[in-house]
Model the fold of this input.
Amino acid sequence: MFFERLVLATGNRGKYREFAAMLPGDLVGELVFAPELTRLVVEETGESYVENALLKARAWARASGLPSLADDSGLEVAALDGAPGVHSARAVPGDDSARNAWLLSELEGREDRTARFVAALALVIPGRREFVCEGECPGHIAGAPSGSGGFGYDPLFIPDGFEASFADIPAEVKNVVSHRAAALRTMIGILGRELKE
Amino acid sequence: MFFERLVLATGNRGKYREFAAMLPGDLVGELVFAPELTRLVVEETGESYVENALLKARAWARASGLPSLADDSGLEVAALDGAPGVHSARAVPGDDSARNAWLLSELEGREDRTARFVAALALVIPGRREFVCEGECPGHIAGAPSGSGGFGYDPLFIPDGFEASFADIPAEVKNVVSHRAAALRTMIGILGRELKE
Done:
């Protein structure tokens, strides 16, 4: 089981960096950052993380003929009934800091700051198989953003067991405790069970 | 948080290979195989995995002046009241295949073949701190050994969710689902919480 070239079906550099660090070298030779391959815009019209991940992985597998791995992830805040959820990256116009400011204002005066990050992964091997799985990381929303690592809502998310945000803790630690790390472990387990070679 | 050189306090090449593959490159520069550093025999006289791991990590940290990571692990078989457990590597005279034959004969005619692998890790940073943690992997004992990977009882151990033994599944999969992988994730989480830099 070895992918000589695997496309990471995302335009997000932060996600690319994380997967490049997390994927075992004996599982993937070259991890290709999708935008460096060709131009392709995928509408994320799915109702779930899994659907969106599949949309992206399928589109890139079709366009490239290569095995493609896509992530779709979101932040689910208990006091907001699971919002922003699947729409996390598009919850608010503007950039990450606009979204972080929006989240803080939504939670103003709320007691319950419980939240979790969820990630779905889809792996599409052209003409062969599709695999999907999910992973999560429980935590809570801080009172103010902190840290310069990560991306998205990371500066506001304190994973359980830590006192620092995902943007504060070293990348090599985030890459072990994160929702994407959990999902990737599940995916590698699935591949071990399903792919014989 | 970065260890330029970290000693892996073991004489077991199989363990060294696994940790070398599992440790993130941005966490450890060079992983030193202890026997290549100096000659040192550590009596594993502890009553628990954690004690034995600490004995080894402390001895190598003292001898080398370098941060040292040790693993102590064992197989716990339900029908044998948790044996061979802490004494797994020394349960029976002889080599791995002698121990595998012993285990099969002990389980002959038994219905319950449930088992788990347990690993304790100790990290000793000279003059600074000690950290310990554990991880486990549930599974069961096969009817016959299978596979050529791994070491120890791996050819007889089928991890939950798989139909192949630890010696059958690819190393990059074992290194994600194993007791050592689980312990290492916990250890990296602890380091992320405890070590500020």
